[in-house]
Each structure stands twice: as structure tokens, then as C-alpha cells.
Hints:
- The structure holds two protein chains of two kinds.
- Chain A is mostly beta strands.
- In chain A, 0% of the residues lie in helices and 68% in strands.
- Chain A has no helices and seven strands.
- By secondary structure, chain B is mostly beta strands.
Amino acid sequence: MPLLDNAQPPGIVCSVLEEPSGSGVRFRGRVNGPEDMTGTYTFQISKTGPAGSSTINQAGKVAAPANTETFLGSTTLSVEPGASYTVRLTIDVNGAIHTCASSKGDRQ
Amino acid sequence: MNTVIVSRCHHRTSFYLIALVCAAQLPPSPASAQSGMAPPISYTDFSRMLLSGNPLLLNNTNRNDANQPPAPGSNFSTIDQRGANDSASGDVSGFGNMTVQVQNGIGNSSVLSVVGNQNTIGTFQRGNNDSASISVVGQNNKITDVQIGSNLSFGLQQVGNGATVTVQQIRR
Lengths: 108, 172
């Protein structure tokens, strides 16, 4: 389920996937574009809740073929009742930094 | 008194990490819930060496010679601490290794630094005010953190593609 797609360079589509996984949520970044894409990414997750806090920073290289969904980062995080989280995916393509997706969620 | 167990063997299996994740689902006993101290857990029985006393800082586990390609999957290390205000740090380089840190008690901290590919890294903490910090650089590493208690803190810095990260914080 894509959470949010912000303004992006023409042709580049990216999002944060949020999928239930047991008592938690699996987060993945996703990018797609009409041309081959190379660069780097950062995938940042921050959660605060009754149990405590988690800060997860993932980074790596982007090598996305044209017209192919490419997943960036993968984290499964428990989200207890009363917790809230933010997720941000940033992609650097050809020296231009784009914040492609940012989401905020919580669990009552 | 704190007890530190350090063990190494030559298995390449994710059995122990699976055991950690499964153990996280178990409810604490009433006694442990009242005292904040968790009872011993059976999956620590694979230890090979026992150090007793009050070693508050342990720097251990495996470091392969950077100039020598390590044998894949040749190292497995654990750190097991029971008590309060313990700290453990591990520094691992190479690939195909497995490192697990287990801490029971309150106010514990765990720090792991891993450089290499296809490593399996795990931390398990049971108690309040525990913190864990993991730094991983490499490809296709598997990182698991399980914390049970309250006022928990977990931080991860991971660089490299193909990593699988699982973080569970369970309030007790």
C-alpha cells in the first residue's frame, strides 16, 4: 500500500510500502522510472511508543532498470498500540537529491 | 554479580536467531515481571566458555584479518549477560558470520559493529531501560533486534543493499 508520493523528478515514481507483518509492519521503499537509474538512497524509520523508541537508517546504492519496480531497504518493525512512526525515503540520482516519500502513521 | 558467557562454534545456522525471535513472544513469569530480572533462558546453553565476575565491558567476538579472506560461515559468537547495567560490544568483520548478544536485566546496553557481507547479527534484551545500537556496513546482512521491557531504545545504521532488518520492541 503506497502511503505517499511527493513531488518527484519527471518520470521517477517512488513510494513507501507499508505491509502488515505479524504484530508489526514491513516497510520498503520502491522506485520506478522510464530510464535506467543509478544513485544512492537513504531509508529512515523512526518509531516512538510505550515500549520505547527505534531509529533505523538504511542506505545503499540504487541501480534500477527502466520500467522496473526496484525495492530499496527493508525493515520489519513492531508497532505496539499507542506507537507512532515516520518513514522517509530519499534518493540521490545523478547528484540531485529527491525526497520521494515520507509517511507518518500510528497505531491506536 | 554479572555473568558473561562467550561462546564460539562452527555452525552456520539461523537456529539461534529464530529461537530469539520465538522467545520474544513468550510472556514473562510473574516473578521476573516484579523484579525486572528475567529467568535464565534455555537457548544460552550452547556456550563454550564461562567468565564470571563483574566484567562490565566486554569487547569480543570475531575479527578476521582484513588481508585474509575469511572462510564463509566459519564464525559464530554470542555474548550473554545477566544482571543490571551491563554493557557489551562486539566488533565483527568478514562475511557469513553470526553474532548474537543476549542481555537480561535492567539498564543494559549493547553495541555491535559489523563490516562484511552476508552476516547474521542479533541482539536480544529483556528488561527495562535497555538500549541496543548496531552499525552494519556490507551487503545482504540479516539484522534482528528483540527487546522486551519498557523505556527501550534501538538504533541502527546500515549501509549496503539487500539487508533484512527486523526490530521488535515489546512492552512488559
